[in-house]
Amino acid sequence: MRILVLGSGAREHALAWKLSQEPTVTHVICAAGNPGIAKTVATIPIDILDTDAVIRLAERERIDLTVVGPETPLGNGLADRFEAEGRRVFGPTRGAAQLETSKAFAKDFMARHRVPTARYRVCTSADDALRAIRAGEFGDALVVKADGLAAGKGVVVAPDRATAEAAVTAAMVDRSFGEAGSRIVLEEMLTGPEVSFFVVANGDAYVPLLSAQDHKRIFDNDEGPNTGGMGAFSPSPLMNDALQLQIEQTIVQPVLKGMTAEGNPFRGFLYCGLMLTPDGPKVIEFNVRFGDPEAQVVLPLLGNLSVLLTLESDGFSRRYQSATVEAVALQCVGVVLAAAGYPGDARSGDVIHGLDDVARDCPDVQIFYAGVKQRGDELVTSGGRVLTVMATAPTFEIAIARCYEAASKIKFDGMQYRRDIGRKALLVS
């Protein structure tokens, strides 16, 4: 089987790395990829938002299955075009992708199908939003979310009304997130630990994968602004059989059945971002693709991805009712190394040192590349999140130690990373 992975980040590197290990896969190409991914699989420069160019590439390379990494091509309808032309694609259609591309759609959908989530209000003007905040509809502390895609930065957890009002002004008046902020969602602030849960789905049928815990804030102890994710660990020690069954019955199954009933059957990865409240698990957000950095810590623990590769095969739904994905009995930790300025305007062009030292001295560590480019003989930074350093081990303690030992060998000007990734796992376990 010949696989095309679309994207250029650490998530896509992890997908390409894992898929290349499948016994039925003979060739993996990553487009657009990056120079770090090129160390693992072939890469081809391409604009993945140009659907016509992607289809031509799939034809030219005789691709059997295209796996879409990021959300924007899915929101633009890439899967719809592939399906219309009879090409196998792993990822939801534009209609199903609305679970991520529109927070207002997702909240209204959950309300229709009684999926547990925070109380909310969709606002179409700044005046409407500011009135709701000043009236105390959600209390003094609340959450402000830009409706559309904002690269993981469109959510403000406001500890007071002044912060919430500033977030509304930034999104709806200053248009900090462009059209993504033309509508916003105000939510009550939920309390409890967060956990992410993943399934591979085809319509009503699905296969559970693993859980993970992400770290969104830029600084230690969950301080500072939100980012796309500064690190993760898997599996979450908060997850057990009873909790997983509850999540599947109250969230996963109603969502998949509801999407099918509304004419948008879901196919691909469904990422459920959850908060474990005193009233049970509630949805914070959905993603319609694998998370980043969660993919980097979940994929190494999966025995195989054959369930993904048979997505469009005959009998898929029937097999999915009883299929499972085996996981290895290890723990995994991933730490993101970010560029100076991130999550704001990140600096580019800083030379990355120490990668050869990690390859030589840290055999249980894998580096997944994201914001990098080649400049002559040097690899330099080219984006906010530059690398994910991933380690697996029999315990979280060992995985954390391996991860940070490797991270300490890597240097570039302005490099920033959290020193507490995985600590939450130790507090539970």
Provide structural commentary.
- 31% of the residues lie in helices and 27% in strands.
- Residues 312-322 have low confidence and may be disordered.
- The strands form five sheets. An eight-stranded antiparallel beta sheet has the order 16-15-10-11-14-17-21-18.
- The longest helix has 21 residues, at 241-261.
- It is an alpha+beta fold and 429 residues long.
- Helix 5 (94-101) packs across helix 6 (103-112) and helix 7 runs antiparallel to helix 8.
- It has helices at residues 10-19, 51-60, 71-75, 78-84, 94-101, 103-112, 126-134, 161-173, 241-261, 294-298, 306-309, 316-320, 355-361, 396-409, 423-428; strands at residues 2-7, 27-32, 42-43, 65-68, 89-90, 120-123, 142-146, 155-158, 184-188, 194-202, 205-214, 217-219, 223-226, 231-234, 267-277, 280-287, 331-338, 365-369, 372-375, 378-381, 385-393.
- The chain contains 15 helices and 21 strands.
Give me the secondary-structure category: alpha+beta
Strand content: 25-35%
List the strand order in the largest sheet: 16-15-10-11-14-17-21-18
> How many strands in all?
21
Q: Radius of gyration in whole Å, from Cα?
A: 21 Å
Largest sheet: 8 strands, antiparallel
* Cα shape: globular
Oligomer, anyone?
single chain
Average pLDDT rating = 92
From the N-terminal CA to the C-terminal CA, the straight-line distance is 40 Å
Number of helices: 15
Poorly predicted regions:
312-322
Provide a concise account of the structure shown.
The chain has 429 residues and is α+β, with helices and mostly antiparallel strands. Helix content is 31%, strand content 27%.
